[in-house]
Structures are given as structure tokens and as C-alpha cells.
Amino acid sequence: MDARAAAATITQHTSEALQRAGLGVVVDDVRVQEAGRRRLVRVLLARDVSTLPAEDTTSTVEPLSLDEVSEATTTVSAALDGCAVMGERAYTLEVSSAGTDRALTTPDHFRRNVGRLLTVVRSDGSSTTARLLAAGPEGLRLEGEDHLVPLSEVTRAQVQIEFTRPDGKDA
Fold first, then answer.
1. What is the reported pLDDT for 16?
2. Which residue of 32, 39, 55, 68 has the lowest C-beta tally within 10 Å?
3. pTM for this one?
4. What is the 3-state secondary structure (H, E, C) of 71-90?
């Protein structure tokens, strides 16, 4: 089984296991790569935002804690051990949350980052660095802009690291 097919199967099995466990965590990405005689399986997790009310586009979403990632790692490991996708070959499992350097590409990525400072590049080539005030299926509301930015106009977006936030919280 190639790496892409393995990643899809792993995503399915681990997503189902996390949902059954009721941890409020979802699989955000899975990557499988060869690393000598072993394979490296990287599973990125994120907070589940599917339970937020559809009309709520402005509340902040807390990042995953180390304890939550640790508990989810146990579930992911058991799910992976319980399916035959990895075969008999040894593998190394890495489970973590996505870092701030990850590009935001889906509505859920944006929803999890409401309140954070983003750099957004639009399809016309313009770039804006502004705080994300709201994120919904229709688009993004950025601080200092008087209109909604449709997701279809966003070609790239990334969280900017802030050492001191205006609201007094650390990033």
C-alpha cells in the first residue's frame, strides 16, 4: 500500500476511534513516509469545532492542551495497532497538534484561529495582516476591513506569532 492510501486508511480508523472516545479532537492531517527500515506516521490533531453552533463565528477556540494530545495519542495508537494498514513492518508514531506555521486552508482551520493575527494573501495578489474577528462558511471578517473576505478569494493564510497579544493572553 502506498503512503497516500495508507494515510487515508489511517485517517479513517483514527478518526472513528477519536469520535468513539468522545475527546473533542479530530484528525487534521496524516502523513506516512519511509524512514529507512521503518515508516514514520505523523498524525496532526485539532479541536473539534463541528459542535459549535452554526451562527457562532466569533468565539475563540482554545488550542489543545498537552494532556488532551496525550490522551488522544493513546487512542490513536490503539486504533493504529488494531488495523492492518501498517502490516508487520515497524513504524514510529508521532501525534501532535498543528503548529502555527501550518497554512490555513479549510473553514475549520480558520474557525479555530478566531482572535489570532493572520497574514492573508488574496487571489488578486494583495496581502493583509490583521486579526481574524470571525470565520464562517461565507468567509472571514478581518479587523479593519468593512466587508467579508470570501474563502474563495484566499489563496494563502497563516497565523502570525505574537509574543504579547493586545488582550493580555499569550499566543
1. 96
2. 55
3. 0.86
4. HHHHHHHHHHHHCCCCCCCC
